[in-house]
Amino acid sequence: MNAYPKITMITSLIGDPTRAAMLDALMGGHALPAGELAYIPGVTPQTASSHLSKLVKGNLIAVEQHGRHRYYRLASQEVAELMELISTMSPPVQIRSLRQSQEMEKVRHARTCYDHLAGKLGVALTQALITKGYVAHRSETEFDVTEQGIEHFRSLGLGLDLTTMKVNRRIFAKRCLDWSERIHHIGGFLGAVIAKHFFEMKWIVRMEGGSRAVRLTEEGRTKLQALYSIAMEDLV
Amino acid sequence: MNAYPKITMITSLIGDPTRAAMLDALMGGHALPAGELAYIPGVTPQTASSHLSKLVKGNLIAVEQHGRHRYYRLASQEVAELMELISTMSPPVQIRSLRQSQEMEKVRHARTCYDHLAGKLGVALTQALITKGYVAHRSETEFDVTEQGIEHFRSLGLGLDLTTMKVNRRIFAKRCLDWSERIHHIGGFLGAVIAKHFFEMKWIVRMEGGSRAVRLTEEGRTKLQALYSIAMEDLV
DNA sequence: TTCATATTTCGATGATAATTTAAATATGCG
DNA sequence: CGCATATTTAAATTATCATCGAAATATGAA
User: What is the DSSP string of A96-157?
Assistant: First the structure.
């Protein structure tokens, strides 16, 4: 039914460094106000506003107004997946300053990928869940949750609808390729629920500065060791 | 190990209309000389040369010199997949001329997608293979080839290594989402082998003008009807 | 060697789009 | 209401980059 797609619509939008930085910030999963989205790439609010309206028009992000603030978020999971895919194909940027290097280190160590955990933490957690027999590789692009896994997640109190899970014996647990580690980690619905739980339990907290980086708390460290035998050495 | 990826490298390259048209032409799977890649988007050889060198530097395409010609092709399967994915997310372009409309119609009717068949022909063929019981849905992203299917492809003389296929009972038959039909069709290794066979048998031929469109021959029509009960009405 | 073709390099031009300054709108607070 | 904050709109400036003409290089053919 459709005519030829105009792919430059999307790519030229992501192709601008300022807009790319904005989208990247929104990959953290949080909706951010226009002001913050101006500060992050280091442009004036006017410039940011211009970019944001273009991104909205191009259906890459969506707005929600709360009082005098306008909160922007990624328009869909699809957009996040596209960004992550492009990241895995993109060349690494060369590090110029110590400050930049430290920021990169944080992001690679642990971050959110739209709505689930990524970086070394995300990968280590995925590996641990496999080792413990809670999840297993299903296919090129999906994970399976095992019987033990269902029991385990129930005991954690994740609030998953276990009956639905049982019906088709399968959870939407997408394998998400990590650009920094080049290893798959758990994304999809399960990934989102796990990340949400980690935040609620205060095992991880977001780092200041509006980046995607997250920090493991003391409590989180203890729990990860106890539940999944993940030591801090695994995350270095 | 990697630092933060510079995603604007790729997206800004694809973001230019001229370069996008070049990449799209190369999605046909054929390597094309610089001259042709200037003619298709309608720019001078000088302009084309400038774009081509950028695309090479960005690892999106690769060159091969034959005499005084330089043949350009997509750098990898990955690039083709990225292009196709972006296409499914992109808005349709509005048709302005009859000429343009006819070209779009051809492309939607039958085309190559890097190395396999797409468009209505690709989708109809896939449906037929499923109906006949030769292939089956395996997962969200893959097809399975059945026992009958293995037998069928052998009888066609596709030159597939059947022993390897039997070992894991599974062929790398990727489900490729079609931007024009929004339905999956067979890609991956199997898709490439099928398309190659169709070309060799002269059931399909490439259309002139360097686009991705292909045309079904009289012979092809007869064969498709006989083998898969595909009538021309299915392709309208 | 000489000529024609394919392609690239260089330098200049021009168009597009990001950015900025200035001003407007809209919301919340006292 | 009056003022501060958050954000957008409009107009002007500037920077980037695609494009093209001119010239160079490289290969093949005569």
Answer: -SHHHHHHHHHHHHSEEETTEEEHHHHHHHHHHHHHTTSEEE-SSSEEEE-HHHHHHHHHHT
Most A CBs within 10 Å, among B7, B14, B81, to test the A interface: B7
Residue A48 Cβ under 7 A from any strand D atom: yes
Residue type, A201: M
CA terminus-to-terminus distance, chain A: 51
Instruction: For residue B127, count CB atoms less than 10 angstroms from its CB and return exposed for 0-12, middle for 13-18, buried for 19 or more.
Output: middle
Tokens of B40: 């298709």
Do residues B105 and B207 make contact, with C-beta atoms less than 8 angstroms apart?
no
Tell how many helices (H) and how many strands (E) occur in chain A: 11, 11
Amino acid letter, residue B228? Y
Secondary structure (DSSP) of A213-230:
BEEE-HHHHHHHHHHH--
Asked if A53 and A19 touch (Cβ cutoff 8 Å), the reply is no
Q: What domains can be seen in chain B, in order of their start residue? A: 8-90 (1.10.10.10), 101-235 (no CATH)
As a rounded value in angstroms, the CA-to-C1' distance for A44 and C21 is 11
Q: How many contacts does A have with B, using Cβ atoms within 8 A?
A: 135
- Could you read off the pLDDT of A40-81 as tens digits, one per residue? 999 999 999 999 999 999 999 999 888 888 999 999 988 998
d(CA B109, CA B103): 10
Minimal CA–CA distance to A22: which of A68, A75, A66, A67? A75
Angle at B42 between CA B40 and CA B46, to 5 degrees: 105
Other CB atoms closer than 10 Å to residue A210's CB: what's the count?
16
Query: How distant is C1' of C3 from CA of B66, in Å?
Result: 21
Number of residues in chain B: 236
Give alpha helix (H) positions in B58-187.
77-89, 98-109, 119-131, 147-156, 162-168
**Count of C-beta atoms within a 10 Å radius of residue A181:** 18
Inter-chain residue contact A91 with B20, CB threshold 8 Å:
no
Give tens-digit pLDDT for B89-144: 888 777 777 877 888 888 888 888 878 888 888 888 998 998 898 988 876 667 88
Beta partners for residue B121, in sequence order: none
